[in-house]
Amino acid sequence: MSRIAIVTGASRGLGRNTALAIAGHGGDVVVTYQSRAAEAEAVVAEIQAMGRKAVALQLDAGAVAGFAPFAERLRVVLREAWQRDSFDHLVNNAGHGDMALITETTEAQFDRLVSVHFKGVFFLTQALLPLMADGGRIVNLSSGLTRVSYPGFAAYSAVKGAVEVLSLYMAKELGGRGIAVNTVAPGAIETDFLGGAVRDTPDLNQAFAGMTALGRVGVPDDIGPMIASLLSEDNRWVNAQRIEVSGGQAI
């Protein structure tokens, strides 16, 4: 029986790369997206071309009121597409960047970061746990910026730090069901995060490359395959860990 993973925010960036890497490792994927339906369906088509099953479902990862209806849609999809009542893996990837100095961060910016990156992770996981198979896996995305600082990322990094603590408690409370929970913390990556700032701004790219032992910033292919590997049986005994995938950033 194939493993089924839910990857939130999988229409682009690290989520897309992770979904494709999971399929490459032999898994099936539920791809969630907020507004990029065409891009999400393109990811589904790529996965299907690899011989795996995939479905795209709309989800606003910052809107808690929508989580119960999402869980019900998921329940129907699992039965129709896989003839199952459960899924195996949850990758809480959906998110956005909002760069501002502490003195310039607005309450609206702060609240949205909390809603998507922390509150959303907490309550979406809660809503989906009844559908998760025992022995499943959860991977929560954090950031290399919870270990080192860079001006403008205080609020973003703080909520990612909250996710890291939450992951420890998830691992403890869900251990009785055999569910392992880990945090993956990417370093600077060339994606459209922050409007493609690291990818498209040479000075910023070079700044992060200069503080990385391997001499460059990351690309999505540095992250997705690692997450897919973490979900495999080869890593079944890895639990409650923060795993930084940054090429040795600021060491």
Characteristics:
alpha/beta, seven-stranded parallel beta sheet
Explained architecture:
The termini are far apart. 41% of the residues lie in helices and 17% in strands. With 251 residues, it is an alpha/beta fold. α1 packs parallel to α2 (37-49) and α1 (13-24) crosses α8 (224-230). It has helices at 13-24, 37-49, 67-82, 107-128, 154-174, 197-200, 202-210, 224-230; strands at 4-7, 28-33, 54-58, 87-92, 132-141, 180-186, 242-245.
Number of helices: 8
Widest sheet: strand ordering: 3-2-1-4-5-6-7
Task: Summarize the biggest pleated sheet.
Answer: 7 strands, parallel
Helix content: 40-55%
What would you call the structural class?
alpha/beta
Low-confidence segments, ≥5 residues, pLDDT <50? none
Q: What share of residues are in beta strands?
A: 15-25%
- Encode the helix/strand succession as letters: EHEHEHEHEHEHHHE
Could you report the average pLDDT, rounded to the nearest whole number? 95
Q: Separation of termini? A: 42 Å
Which secondary structure elements does this structure contain, and how are they paired or packed?
Layout: E1 4-7, H1 13-24, E2 28-33, H2 37-49, E3 54-58, H3 67-82, E4 87-92, H4 107-128, E5 132-141, H5 154-174, E6 180-186, H6 197-200, H7 202-210, H8 224-230, E7 242-245
Parallel strand pairs: 1-2, 1-4, 2-3, 4-5, 5-6, 6-7
